[in-house]
Design brief:
homodimer, 14 strands, 3 domains, Rossmann fold, histidine biosynthesis (chains A, B), about 15% strand, alpha/beta, five-stranded parallel beta sheet
Chain lengths: ~425, ~425
């Protein structure tokens, strides 16, 4: 049986080049998809509900007579919740409670109260923090419909204090996913429309007679949805456009190799483009993980996806030591970073760039994906260098407060006027000078 | 003399439609500019320094022999600072000190320390906050070159802990602006390249042999720069693409009308698309402001720009009362909101959406533009509904911390496995189940 995964060694001369090649991922921007999305958006902007209805009936093979008919009733939502097996409902509710609790802590800790301070001359400066008014959550239909994502997108918005959450979820051929609808009820989603694609993005961004305009759209979608989100950015806020999911495991060789193999599988099973990488200083341990991969692969229901993902984008990398593993991890800036090691904190202290860090061998990524509490919407494709997990802060915004006292205006007015003249902006200068006695 | 500014009344039946028409602003997306920017980016990506050099020599009429020659030496930077008139240098230094002090407070107050907490079973959850490694600041050349913008973009990055700040500023025909270079020295910019346009954005986003790759690009630029920034978003972070600047003044009729007229001018003088609006419940006061506008306009050096801006995009709006003014202000979500009134705080409490609020008649926007302390890079075009002033938080990012204890894994593993099976992700489920005893 051929090796299902690349093997690299950081001591090789061409290691950096090989690592770059492994990480390279170019989101294909299909001009045809972009143009199609732009046309649908323009249609929704000009024709509103009629355009949304036409597109939904056409692309999702619906036969609705109005957009109103595409909104789910509270009764239907409650029925979806009631239809769940008790243990599944309990799991969903436990996950929701834990996610809510973490994000409440985050709200408390991340400056949501704003601040203000008074200077000696009576001038007050500060910052006011307020929630967004209304948020749209896009939930994909079909096989990639994840109830956990509904929780992860809606709960931080709710905790932030967003007054109305509108969910859109396409239901091709009218097929609904009760687990997704139940998650929406549990997360506190206010209204649900069974629409999708660029038409749903347009409806949320511009508003129609039936669907209210939102201030921000979050949640993953297909290429049409991503193209539409890019185009409405500015009219509304959007979250990051996600790339393929990634896991990077740093292991000191003390974790059961089956566990690490399965953690690599858990990322690889998402799709063929997902990326699973192991960094380890122990060559014998890497052999053991590879043996585990070979042993466990055939037993996995999604083995074809896992095999392709590991073969094309995975790697087992021998490093010199754990310090070097951390340096490489910083250059990779992975979405998920497991530090499966004794005393993981010492290595975590060296990490500057990662979406989420899973410390210690009991912290498998799967726990974080569903129910540990922190968000599973994380920066991919090295964007953890400059961006953060989805959080309460994504549903809040800040306003500066400037309350200059009469005395303060005497000092500030002179400085402002001097600089305004320097920039050739005389009205700025005079406006400041008017406040001088 | 004809009225230089529209007059509206919120009691008119068609007020909402008229207000919408007034606010409507469609950023023209020029396909030719976008294509040209894309070509330059592709060239920089493939040819690096050579492409940057060619574009700079061609578009900025430079005659450099290498990109190294386009970097300014520390000596040249220090000479720019030394060349300033003492009062101008002092003003710049005072402004920088105040901006630094506000952003240090912001860093302290907005959760920069991160957080972590331990649950009953020993599981630790939290969030680590780290600065970006390296940031690029785009500074326009020519007439729109504002030293105050250099301070406002660089200082929050520095306060956040960014290790290296690279500034790019085009110098068409080799003409440098000493005030801009001096501001860069005062703000702590590390390296300055005299390049601009899409080629500068590409160099910062992809890196070249001479110019290091950054993690985020901030700062305003022309249409080519904006198009290039949109396209590199994802490879690096970017700030908001700014629209025309706006001021909204809510006045209760107790401020000297000349002051309010000049505050409206101070926005209108930026460019013909800038927007200046007054909301006031007092009809006689509105007449007085209009008289002040007529009286003061001819004395302004930039009167042509001001006249066009006020005529095309300005308005004096009579409202029923101050409460209604605040409601309208929330729907406008202005970049700059002056509440020029007695006891302004009572009205500020009603404001949910604004980039910056200037309270009381001594807080003219010009003071905030230069030296009050809060940032002058603010959300425009109603984006204050969902976005914030540039701040320390724009140069930091967060990583989730998940350290599950052995005991915690027993509870979380069961919940995660239940949900993973529900989503058809068996490797996720087994990875969680491996951690069960």
């Amino acid at each position: 049986m051929s090796l299902p995964i690349s093997r690299l060694d950081s001591a090789q001369a061409d290691f950096k080049a090989k690592l770059s090649a492994l990480l390279a991922f170019e989101a294909s921007e299909d001009e045809a998809i972009d143009r199609a999305a732009a046309q649908i958006l323009a249609d929704v902007k000009s024709r509103g509900d009629a355009a949304v209805l036409d597109a939904s009936n056409r692309f999702d093979r619906m036969s609705a007579s109005s957009v109103q008919a595409l909104e789910l009733s509270q009764q239907e939502m409650q029925q979806a919740l009631a239809s769940l097996a008790p243990e599944r409902r309990a799991a969903l509710e436990t996950a929701a409670a834990r996610v809510r609790s973490y994000h409440e802590r985050q709200k408390q800790e991340c400056g949501s109260a704003g601040f203000s301070y008074t200077e000696a001359d009576g001038t007050v400066l500060g910052q006011k923090v307020t929630p967004l008014d209304r948020v749209g959550i896009y939930v994909p239909g079909g096989k990639a419909a994840y109830p956990s994502s509904v929780l992860m997108n809606a709960i931080p918005a709710k905790v932030a204090g967003v007054q109305e959450i509108i969910m859109v979820v396409p239901t091709p051929d009218g097929v609904k996913n009760p687990l997704v609808l139940a998650a929406a009820v549990i997360a506190g989603v206010d209204r649900v429309f069974t629409i999708g694609g660029a038409q749903a993005v347009g409806a949320l961004a511009y508003g129609t007679a039936t669907i209210p305009q939102v201030d921000k759209i979050v949640g993953p979608g297909n290429a049409y949805v991503a193209a539409a989100k890019r185009r409405v950015f500015g009219t509304v806020g959007i979250d990051m456009i996600a790339g393929p999911s990634e896991i990077l495991v740093i292991c000191d060789g003390t974790t059961d190799p089956d566990w690490v193999a399965m953690d690599l599988f858990s990322q690889a099973e998402h799709d063929e483009l997902a990326q699973s990488i192991l960094l380890c200083p122990d060559a014998a341990y890497i052999e053991a993980v590879q043996a585990s991969i070979l042993k466990l692969l055939d037993g996995m229901p999604r083995k074809d996806v896992i095999r392709t993902s590991l073969a094309n984008r995975g790697a087992l990398i021998k490093v010199r030591d754990m310090q070097e593993a951390c340096e490489i991890a910083n250059s990779i800036a992975a979405e998920h970073l497991e530090i499966s090691a004794e005393n993981p904190q010492q290595w975590a202290d060296l990490i500057r760039h990662a979406g989420a860090m899973f410390l210690g061998r009991f912290s498998s990524e799967a726990l974080g994906d569903y129910c540990a509490g922190p968000n599973h919407v994380l920066p991919t494709s090295r964007t953890a260098r400059f961006s953060s997990p989805l959080g309460v802060y994504d549903f809040q915004k800040r306003s500066s407060i400037i309350h200059v006292s009469e005395q303060g205006a005497q000092t500030l007015g002179r400085v402002a006027a001097e600089l305004a003249y320097g920039e050739g902006l005389q009205a700025h200068a005079r406006s400041a000078e008017y406040r001088l006695k």
